Amino acid sequence: MTEATSVLKVSDCLQNSIKELLDKYHLTLNFIGENQAISGSFWGDSEAGLIGNTVHVRNDTPIHSLLHETCHYICMDEIRRRNVDTNAEGDYDEENAVCYLQILLADNIGEMSSERMMQDMDRWGYTFRLGSAKAWFEKDADDALAWLHNHKLLNSNNRPNYTLRKL
Length: 167
Known about the structure:
Helix content: 40-55%
Structural class: mainly alpha
Low-confidence stretches: none
Mean pLDDT: 94
Number of strands: 3
Radius of gyration: 15 Å
Order of helices and strands: HEEEHHHHHH
Strand content: 5-15%
Number of helices: 7
């Protein structure tokens, strides 16, 4: 098994837990048939796609990709959210916040966890200054945490409050 294929995929998880999480953010989950192109996928292949309020996946889509696109939707402003089609277009600070939030939201999917999310991010090739997602999350992500608080996406306990960015 290669590193890229050892990440947790949509087919490894209960679809109900994924749908319940997306429902909290008014997102729809759309399954694409096996070997079909994923609508709205910026990276292609098995990567999740985002068009409007719909996250498009196949069974072989990595959970980290599904959550990454979900978090882009959560973190983008209302104007971009209304018009999003394939490219989330966020800036550097928003991208960091997306990565941080996807780690937090991983605990909402029973087969996934924050710890597993960080491992999968490393396996897939996400890069962080300190060398790993875990080191970044624990020691170097204060800016991402502050961004999420400034946009009221976390509560005072640094947990998701299941709202979308307003401005």
